[in-house]
Amino acid sequence: MIPSHVTEEMLWECKQLGAHSPATLLTTLMFFNTKYFLLKTVDQHMKVAFSKVLRHTKKNPSNPKDKSTSIRYLKGAGMHHVGQKVTDDMYAEQAENPENPLRCPIKLYDFYLFKCPQSVKGRNDTFYLTPEPVVAPNSPIWYSTQPISREQLEHMLTRILMVREIQEAIAMATGSLH
Hints:
Oligomer: single chain
Shape: globular
Structural class: alpha+beta
Radius of gyration: 17 Å
């Protein structure tokens, strides 16, 4: 594979990632889900749902005031046995980025939830919602209750898979980095 010249930093700088618009925020969440949850196919992304992505806070045992927050996704949801105890290693995680809140997966996830209709937040069949066609930045709702189409998701994912850091994360996970 030829290494990409498109970097994550470039996408942040030219506002292709961030919370500037509903479409950009959606792309950013999909970017993070690809990078950290290693979801590299349309089918894997189609299985992501509000009910399967959870905010998780861990306290430091030596200092209870020291907490770290992450977003967790149960890897291979549906592959576990009924009654099987879910352990920490069954989750993929996205850690917070306290040094840069504008690029923090947790803050952007929270902002996405804030801009979604209340009725969709517990759904177990979708996560990526269709952006409303015209919204003001201060509008309370940025997304409809309808999931984005498979074609839209595929188009977005194709672009995300071209980013160097995504290619490197996938290569590291599959052990094919030379």
